[in-house]
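To the team - erythose-4-phosphate complex, inputs and output below.
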Amino acid sequence: MKFFIDTANVDEIRKANEMGVIAGVTTNPSLIAKEGRDYAETLKEIAAIVDGPISGEVKATTEDAEGMIAEGRAIAALHPNMVVKIPMTTEGLKAIKALSAEGIKTNCTLIFSANQALLAARAGATYVSPFLGRLDDISQPGIDLIRMICQMFDNYPDINCQIIAASVRNPIHVTDCALAGADIATVPYKVIEQMTKHPLTDQGIEKFKKDYLAVFGQ
Ligand code: E4P
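Output:
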């Protein structure tokens, strides 16, 4: 499983990129709005930092296929690594079909059922983004959805669509997604940091330092 970082904060993106663990970035209108900066400029700056797929979503105010296609073309023109994120609706599927016919990569977002994922894959989406945390929030096990989509896509070798496990909230989500077989997990910076931690690692570092200093000094 690969990692993308799920943020529009360029400082967090730079830090994660320097660690060498991220292969791409996902954003959404909420994440970009949180940064309070120009939408397109933020995406361009992100694409200049990470050499991998960068998902930029059509604005939440665009609901018809024509509008999404026009916006998708503009997002794709920002950088060769841009992936156009489109919500799962009938209009969204039409936009995915049109954009993928033009060779533009798409990420179908707000996936909450296996059937939605299958439809997006058949429309030509490069990626689907099932949201596990938001399902957990309403007492439905989100990981079951990731497992179902992995199994469904495995049944049909002609499906090339990659699964991005999204709405990842903690390190257990990450482990579960990797065991389920998700292609990618997109994770907030906080979760990347949490994943690096283990109390025995900290204790081990302290003991190595103490033992070294006792014999060799500074
Ligand atoms: C990524 O594609 C999604 O936009 C994101 O993971 C949503 O996460 P949230 O449910 O924590 O807002």
